[in-house]
Amino acid sequence: MRKRAKNTSPRVASGTVRAAEIWLSAAALCFGASPTLAHAEHGHPARIHEGTCEQLGGVAVRLNGVGGSVDLDNAPVATPTAVNPDAAYQMMVSETPIDGTLDDVVTAPHAVMVYESDEAMEAIACGDVGGAMAGDTLITGLAESGAPGYVGFAMFSAEGDGTLVTVIIGHALAPVSAASGIAEPSDAGADEAEHEHAEGEDAEHEHAEEDGHDAAATPEL
Fold first, then answer.
1. 121 — alpha (psi -120 to 50), left (phi > 0) or beta?
2. Window from 159-163, 187-191, 197-201, 208-212 with minimum mean pLDDT
3. Which helix (H) or strand (E) holds 139?
């Protein structure tokens, strides 16, 4: 498997976006691009590795950065439009056409790994290729890996004689601190349970006293 030659026809950026990104590229050439800008442009690095998340092998395919505005060749790519960003979770997307069919991807163990940045290649999400088929698309879950809150999906869809890999990552969706899913009982619930227990003990005590009183009041025959 390898990244396919770029096909600009189905996913070319709009004229306005392209003009803006050309202007930004020119500005970067004139004034220099900072590491922060470079990271923002390339997004979170993503790779298809041989092996599994637990036993990661070599890189099989380099994918376009998740949430980036340029691809691996620094060519501009269309970016999603944020909807209701003040209330909704942040979502980041990348699309990469690769050589090989879906069967080629699943025949041997592979894993999709997403990293923090080009400067800090620390894993933030990973998923072993597999999951569920929806039509001709394989949907693979990506779980937290090292950093809290990054989860998402990798989707593999047939595209001609190759495969389109779409990686979607959401931030702050599943904090590691809440991963156990064990809810602590509230104080009110604990107080209510203690009260019910005390009432049960009082009832048993009263019943025992009544039995003792009846036994004492009954004459022997």
1. beta
2. 187-191
3. strand 137-144
Whole-number mean pLDDT of the chain?
Answer: 75
Element (H, E) at 157: strand 151-159
Q: What are phi and psi of 25, to 5 degrees?
A: -65, -40
Q: How many CB atoms lie within 10 A of CB 172?
A: 11
Which residue type, as a one-letter code, is found at position 133?
A: M
DSSP H helices in 93-179: 102-107
Helical ranges in 32-101 per DSSP H: 35-42
Q: What are the phi and psi torsion angles at 110 (to 5°)?
A: -140, 155
Mean pLDDT score, 94-111: 94
Report yes or no on whether pTM surpasses 0.90: no
**What residue has token string 């976006």?**
17
Whether 83 shows a pLDDT value over 60: the answer reads yes
CA distance 190 to 195: 9
SS3 116: coil
Contact (Cβ atoms closer than 8 angstroms) between residue 116 and residue 148: no
Q: For the chain, what is the radius of gyration of the CA atoms?
A: 29
Residue 51 CA to residue 160 CA, distance in Å, equals 26
The number of CA neighbours under 13 Å toward the Cβ of 170 is 11
Is the dihedral angle over the CA atoms 197, 200, 204, 206 positive or is it negative? positive
